[in-house]
Amino acid sequence: MANHLQEPLTTYCIQRDEEMMTMQALKIATNLAIPMVFKAALELGVFDTIAAMGNGAWLSSSEIADLVSKPSPPTQRRLFETGENDLTGKTRRIYAAEPVCTLFLTRGDDSGTLMSLFMLLNSQVFFKTWDNLKGVIQEGKDAFSSAHGMPLFEYIGLDEQFAVMVNHAMAESSTIIMKKILEVYRGFEDVNTLVDIGGGLGTVLNLVTSKYPQIKGINFDLTMVLANAPSYAGTVLVD
Ligand SMILES: C[S@@+](CC[C@H](N)C(=O)[O-])C[C@H]1O[C@@H](n2cnc3c(N)ncnc32)[C@H](O)[C@@H]1O
């Protein structure tokens, strides 16, 4: 049987290019599976579960499935941590959480997460929006308005659950970015009053005024958003 070493180089290169192109097209065609599997993993708490096992934990898919479907007693957890195999003698594929997974954990503290932003962009409301992208060209309307009959910030006034999702997605993703900015940016040192236009729940403004207490913060946002914003020392809410 002929192999590529016996073929003219150009023929081999064309075949390789076609293979690569077909693989690329297949990836594009099936790409949606990746965020959907990722979403299911987040909803099941897979990353939180692996993280809870401590650094360096490696788990098989059945161990992860067991843990996320019924929380295990501590003794069983120790078994996983020591890396003991099952008794079948079969090679098991095992999984650990990559460092990037830490950005999707629900720690329940103020460290920020990208989980809520991911869930927002992959929510039913946003799927309907993605499905209307062509309307931007065909109707000259933004995709959200085509899908839902009104702009996003009007819609959140009608759907409380979605509003909570939006506000948390904004605040929790901005927290990660703002904390990094505050590590290097010195431009707030001489500021006395800072107005955050569209400041949402006020999380970002609070990060700034906590580091620079001389700043009087003004969070300017929609009434319905401010209604759910916690009060922070040194910050006033204005709509
Ligand atoms: C992308 S979000 C950013 C929120 C916030 N800065 C953060 O990083 O978490 C945009 C914000 O603009 C607010 N917004 C939209 N239209 C507004 C308007 N007409 N007047 C005031 N705020 C508005 C929204 O309510 C929302 O909180």
UniProtKB/TrEMBL annotation:
List keywords of the entry alphabetically: Methyltransferase, S-adenosyl-L-methionine, Transferase
Name the PANTHER family for this protein.
O-METHYLTRANSFERASE
Which segments constitute the O-methyltransferase dimerisation domain?
28-106
Coiled coil location: none
Instruction: Please state every residue range assigned to the domain named O-methyltransferase C-terminal.
Output: 130-232
Q: Which organism is it from?
A: Brassica cretica (Mustard)
The protein, known as: O-methyltransferase domain-containing protein
Residues in the signal sequence: none
**UniProt-listed Gene3D superfamilies:** Vaccinia Virus protein VP39 (3.40.50.150), Winged helix-like DNA-binding domain superfamily/Winged helix DNA-binding domain (1.10.10.10)
Superkingdom of the source species: Eukaryota
Q: Which Pfam families match?
A: Dimerisation, Methyltransf_2
